[in-house]
Design a protein that fits this description.
By secondary structure, this protein is mainly beta. It is built from one helix and nine strands. The chain has a five-stranded mixed beta sheet, with no helix packed on it. Strands 2-9-4-7 form a four-stranded antiparallel beta sheet, with no helix packed on it. A hairpin with a 3-residue loop joins β5 and β6. The relative contact order is 0.27.
Length: 122
């Protein structure tokens, strides 16, 4: 039994996306938030990471507002998208990863629009 518990603990620590990555910028959005942009630079090799903290049960949309050759992943929800994605009844924190789709020699500027949505909005 102890081995099983130890193995599960090691697995939980080792799995990417199992917990929010260290090094992500924490962004807290309160229930009165409406819309805003996350701005940054997608490095030539790697990613920009945001640990988005929203009220439990919140509906929201995530959309790449600007940036060339840039894509977004939200582990557990979708991968490598640049169109508007709706997430309903979010259970808690989200990790948003922004990266270059095809590696370029230079970093790429981006803006990701976050909107709190009413129930039933898509």
């Amino acid at each position: 039994m102890r081995m099983l518990v130890a193995a599960l603990l090691v697995l939980a620590i080792a799995l990417p996306g199992a917990s929010h990555a260290q090094g992500c910028d924490v962004v807290r959005l309160e229930s009165d938030f409406a819309s805003g942009d996350l701005r940054g630079t997608a490095p030539a090799d790697g990613m920009a990471c945001f640990d988005l903290r929203v009220p439990q049960g919140q509906n929201l949309s995530i959309e790449l507002e600007s940036g060339r050759n840039v894509s977004i992943s939200v582990p557990g929800y979708y991968d490598a998208r640049n169109d508007r994605m709706f997430l309903g009844d979010v259970p808690g924190p989200l990790e948003i990863r922004v990266f270059q789709l095809m590696r370029a020699a230079a970093p790429e500027q981006f803006a990701v629009r976050i909107r709190f949505e009413d129930a039933g909005t898509r």
